[in-house]
Each structure stands twice: as structure tokens, then as C-alpha cells.
Amino acid sequence: MTGTGAAPTYTTIAGRHRHEIEVRRSRFIAVLERVESQEQADALLAALRKEFHDARHHCSAILIGANREVQRANDDGEPSGTAGAPMLEALTRRETADGRTDLSDVAAVVVRYFGGILLGAGGLVRAYSGSVSQALDTAQYVQRERCGVFQVSAPHATAGRLENDLRGAGVTVRGTTYQPSQVLITVAVADSSAELEAFRERLAGMTAGAADAAHVGCEWVDRV
């Protein structure tokens, strides 16, 4: 199996998370959401503009893709470079498991209610960056892993037992398709030579070498 060039794992957040801070009477409401497209990020921003329709600013930053292919930031009326860019930097510099900076598939929106006191450029940078960083401090994280998808064919008489054996061995079973002459068991295996070799050895042992796995694609899965 060959990889796609993307990192074999990366980290995202679980669902939506909200955190609020106050800086010199200005309210900064940070909302983080797991997204997989620009359209999903746009939908989050639109929903928050509606919810907080009387706020002065709705600044945003997004980071999408295993290799962070999509990076966007918007100051929404704040002085250039004082809101969106610091928010994006808070996302890109966030350390996750083992000190890695691999966070992605995240949209961040910070809603600001002006408190009447000017913060200055430096104060705005610290407030917007800190708002996202503090939200990330309390968010839940999910690690994603690139997997190869394989189909294992088996006779009807032994397919049920083989599926149970695969699950019992820790193999991720994605589904089972019953056909007139055989059963196809779809599994996902971590995209590494060692994992693939171990899977093939387990499969050979379970079927006395009678079954093989056909590679049919790749997908990203959440680690449980």
C-alpha cells in the first residue's frame, strides 16, 4: 500500500467548544468547531453572526486538512493583523500529544463586544490569541489516523466467524456485504508497512492462508 503524502496521523477537536474571557471590559467569546471544509466553517461563522448579531466583530481563522492545506484568517474590521492572524497562529502552534503541533480541521471564531476601552494593537493581538488559546486549553481532542481500506472475501459458512475473529484481534471492521457467492468484509488498517504486514499475518493465521485482502482505497478514521 502506498501513502498519499499526508501525515499518517493528526489531531482535531471533538465537536464544538465555547470559552469566554474579558479584557478591559471587552468580551471575547471564542467558539471552536471541528470542520472538514470551507463551507462548514462559513456556516459556523454565519450562525454566530446571527446569534451574536449585536456584536461589533466576528473574527475567524480556519485550519483544514491533514497537511493543513487550507489556512484562512479574517480580522472582520479590527486593525489588520490584530485578530485573525493571531488566532490562526494559536491554532497552528498548539501542542497536542507528545508535543506535536498537528492540530487541524478546526474553525475558530471570536466574537467581540467592545467595552469602551481601546486595547491598542498589542492588546488586541494578545486578547484574540489568548481567547483561542484558552478555549483550546479546555477543548477535547481526537486523533485521526490514515488507514488503508481492504475487502476480505469469505464463504458464507465461515464469514461470521472470520468477522468476529478480526474484531477480536483489534482490526477495524467497516462493514459486511453479502453477495450470492461470497461475503465481503471491509476493514481499515493503519497506513504503515508494519501494521499492514501484521494484518496480513493475522488474516493468514485465521484462514489457514485461504483468504487475501484487496486494497480498495484510503480513508481517515478517528482513533477510539
Helices and strands in order:
Layout: E1 9-13, E2 16-23, E3 26-34, H1 38-51, E4 57-64, E5 70-74, H2 84-92, E6 106-113, H3 120-137, E7 141-154, H4 156-168, E8 172-178, E9 183-190, H5 193-207, E10 213-222
Antiparallel strand pairs: 1-7, 2-3, 3-6, 4-5, 4-6, 7-9, 7-10, 8-9
Description:
With 224 residues, the protein is of the alpha+beta class. Helices cover 31% and strands 37% of the residues. It has helices at 38-51, 84-92, 120-137, 156-168, 193-207, and strands spanning 9-13, 16-23, 26-34, 57-64, 70-74, 106-113, 141-154, 172-178, 183-190, 213-222. A hairpin with a 5-residue loop joins strand 4 (57-64) and strand 5. Helix 2 (84-92) packs parallel to helix 3 (120-137). The mean pLDDT is 92.
Query: What is the tally of helical segments?
Result: 5
How do the SSEs run, as a string of H and E? EEEHEEHEHEHEEHE
- β-sheet strand percentage: 35-45%
Shape designation: elongated
Terminal-residue CA separation: 23 Å
Please provide the count of β strands.
10
Rg measurement, Å: 23 Å
Major beta sheet, specifics?
5 strands, antiparallel
Helix percent reads 25-40%
SS-derived structural category: alpha+beta
Low-confidence stretches: none
Mean pLDDT: 92
Summarize the structure.
Helix content is 31%, strand content 37%.
Name a few traits of the molecule.
alpha+beta; about 30% helix
